[in-house]
Specification:
Mean pLDDT: 96
CATH class of the largest domain: Alpha Beta
Structural class: alpha+beta
Strand content: over 45%
Shape: globular
CATH topology of the largest domain: Diaminopimelate Epimerase, Chain A, domain 1
CATH superfamily of the largest domain: Diaminopimelate Epimerase, Chain A, domain 1
Largest sheet: 18 strands, mixed
CATH architecture of the largest domain: Roll
Number of domains: 2
Number of strands: 18
Order of helices and strands: EEHEEEHEEEEEEHEEEHEEEE
Distance between the termini: 10 Å
Number of helices: 4
Helix content: 10-25%
Length: 270
């Protein structure tokens, strides 16, 4: 029986993905496929699907679909997984570039499962916004690190109701029509921050978010709370390393580094 699609299950910082080589178009309906395979219990179970496709202007093209079927422009943890997949499985060089919805991504696969990617230049929309949500005033920053992110600094991260508050902010009229991801950040010191993220498209708190960790590190540096490089403690317990190049208050380049690992290989029967 060959009415099936080969895939790899991969994980980076607690974000898990179904990775498929789609250069021959084996996935006909990406939205329907993603919604089915990402379902726990009835599918494979994952935060999203990464499709590896051909490109005429880079080594390859990557498409990212959230578990609800919506397509994302960027995913830092997904970028690291697809780079490791390209290197380990498809035998690409340890240094590569690939197309994404947020532009061209540079990646380097290093030792001990480590992958470093250069993300798009951050775009800052608001540095000091205020929203009233759930009878509380939240001071926030709003920026784009490939996808939109709200960053909120808090004193006690463990007490924050990430799902309820994150969902309310994600759907707030201020960020319509597309909504936003929401990050709650606690500064642990000049070299480390801790982050919890409500992810748009997953519509829940996830164990980590690469672009969210990056957005949180960017704002921590710009506000003077942290120094480079910044270690980001995710909910999964893994630390991501964020480094940057800056000119004054402008961040010109951002680099995200962390582990990307294979979980298993399988066949999904259609």
């Amino acid at each position: 029986m060959k009415n099936s699609i080969s895939f790899y299950k991969m994980v980076a910082s607690g974000n898990d993905f179904v990775v498929v080589d789609n250069r021959r178009g084996v996935v006909k309906d990406a939205v329907a496929f993603t919604r089915k395979v990402c379902q726990p219990h009835q599918g494979i179970g994952a935060d999203g699907v990464l499709l590896f496709e051909s490109s005429k202007k880079a080594n390859f093209k990557m498409r990212i679909l959230n578990l609800d079927g919506s397509e994302a422009a960027a995913c830092g943890n997904g970028f690291r997984c697809i780079a490791r997949y390209a290197h380990d499985i498809l035998k690409y060089s340890s240094r590569m570039n690939f197309e994404s919805g947020s532009g061209l991504i540079e990646a380097e696969v290093g030792p001990k499962d480590s992958v470093r990617v250069q993300l798009m230049k951050p775009r800052i929309f608001e540095m000091d916004g205020v929203l009233e949500v759930r009878k509380h005033k939240w001071h926030f920053a709003f920026l784009d690190t490939g996808v939109p992110h709200v960053v909120i600094f808090v004193k006690d991260l463990e007490t924050v109701e990430v799902f309820e508050t994150g969902k309310a902010i994600r759907n707030h009229a201020h960020f319509q029509p597309f909504g936003t991801n929401v990050n709650f950040v606690e500064v642990n010191g000049k070299k480390e921050i801790a982050v919890r993220t409500y992810e748009r498209g997953v519509e829940n708190e996830t164990l980590a978010c690469g672009t969210g960790s990056t957005a949180s590190a960017v704002m921590s540096v710009l506000k003077g709370y942290a120094e480079l490089p910044v270690n980001v403690l995710t909910k999964s317990g893994e630390k991501l390393r964020i480094d940057m190049q800056r000119k004054g208050d402008e961040i010109t380049k951002v680099f995200l580094e962390g582990k990307a690992q294979f979980v298993y290989k399988g066949e999904y029967f259609l």
